[in-house]
Amino acid sequence: TMLSRADVMTRSVLLMIGLAAVGLIVFGLAAEYVEAADAAMQPSPEASDGERPWLLRIGAIVLTAGVLGLFIRRGWWRLPGSTVPRWLMRQPEVGFGLFAAMLLVPMLTVGGFLGVVGPGDDAESPLRFRTIATGLGAAGHVLVLIGLAVIWRRLGRPTWSGREAMSRGRAAVVGVVAVVGVYPVLHIVSELSIFAHRLIVGETPDAIAHETLALLATGDMTGWWLAMVGLVIIAAPLFEEIMYRGGLQSAIRGFGLPGWPAVLLTSAIFTLMHLHVADVHALPTLFTLSVAMGWMYERTGRLTAPIVMHIAFNAANVALALTIPEEQAVAAMVW
Q1: Percent composition of the chain: helix, strand, coil (DSSP 3-state, to 5)
Q2: Tens of pLDDT along 81-94?
Q3: Which of 3, 75, 164, 174 is the most buried (most CB within 10 A)?
Q4: pTM (2 d.p.)
């Protein structure tokens, strides 16, 4: 079949991005090889614990090339007909309202907690303090969703899918497969970001790029610790995907923006909203993850797929953070 000009241009752009990424990785590895060779000529007390295995890097490059190849070859980059709910197509401001409410109400609940307790308790028990604040934020999200459910019941539950959506069970399976496929891509993006940080700043970034992960890596396995793990792995992915994909991305689509621009704009906002908890060098990885989750939402028509991807990503990050030596985790914490 003949491809349209737009299809040819999109494939060409994706191919160029893939080649550029591989080229940057090869350049980065070559630069690090030269640096390592120079260091080997000098007496060194010990090798850096932060260096990642070369075999893992090479495997990530091969897997990333395979994923990009399948992505382009199979035409998975094409986004089907709109997944926006019919009622959002007529009233996209409802989606923006959902996004704004899920953004502001948790701020009010956490702000009230800080106003009553005060920030001084943070130094005494930072994990407990962060767990309570995060739990209150999750409670704010629940309040918003309860309010939405009440509105739906009074006005009549709207038809959700703008087109025939994938079943939830199949979407969950697809989400698992997608996160396995995108993980080597995230690894490569992370490596590039670390390399750029070294090049610009002149030092290796912290081993843990997220404050909450650093708290979990240094905390004892108490009830507060287990509660925070549950909030990070289950609550945060659920509420954030409802907020960003179900609310914001759907509303942007409802205003007539095509699929990929809506995915990219939503992902940019998603990434910027993590500036206060994640290091700058981790933001490209978060942006890439968000693009993948937005793409999955568009492809499946279900929030199930991006929620499963988000849960798997957070769970993997918690598991990896627990393997980091405690002294590196302490250094990564922002007080």
Answers
A1: 75, 0, 25
A2: 666 666 666 678 88
A3: 174
A4: 0.77
